[in-house]
Design goal:
7 helices, globular
């Protein structure tokens, strides 16, 4: 006698809706947003659980690291959502990954283009699973803290073009050289 809100059933439905939409060659903006928002609520709940787990271990710095981690997750989500609302007709985060490749940038952008696989759910879910199996909750917290805070800063930089590579300016010859 299981509830419809059973986590296993919800996970199955979450995994199936996008696949059915792809098979039927149909999608909706509402469906994209619901999928994105539900995934992000899951991430927030997971991180809060990790913060609480690390707090139970007696980490004296949990207030600071937990706050900075949740801030990073929130800023990453906020920058992503603002970008989607302003620049796309989609609620899918895949749009951001596609558009990121269009931004100008120097070596830092090239590095992050090569590391894009790390922001995919499949990668970090497996990484966090392995860390959890070995009892390394603090590693999950630090990985998330560093990764999310770098992610939103790189994204904002790419979107706003704050640190575009310098363009060489040719100097015109002065009057003495004429």
């Amino acid at each position: 006698n299981r509830s419809i809100f059973d986590p296993v059933r919800l996970a199955i439905l979450d995994g199936c809706d996008g696949e059915i939409s792809k098979l039927k060659l149909s999608s909706s903006k509402l469906g994209q947003w619901l999928a994105t928002l539900s995934d992000n609520v899951t991430y927030i709940c997971f991180i809060i659980g990790v913060v609480l787990g690390v707090a139970r271990l007696g980490n004296p710095h949990i207030a600071l690291t937990g706050t900075l981690t949740i801030f990073g997750v929130g800023m990453t989500m906020l920058t992503a959502f603002v970008y989607l609302v302003r620049n796309s007709n989609s609620g899918s985060l895949l749009v951001i990954q596609r558009d990121f490749n269009k931004f100008e940038g120097g070596p830092v952008k090239k590095l992050f283009s090569r590391l894009q696989f790390m922001i995919k759910r499949d990668f970090f879910a497996l990484l966090f699973f392995v860390m959890a199996v070995f009892g390394k909750l603090e590693w999950i917290l630090w990985t998330t803290l560093i990764g999310t805070n770098i992610a939103w800063m790189v994204f904002l930089n790419s979107y706003l073009g704050l640190f575009k590579p310098a363009v060489a300016v040719k100097e015109s010859p002065g009057p003495a050289s004429r």
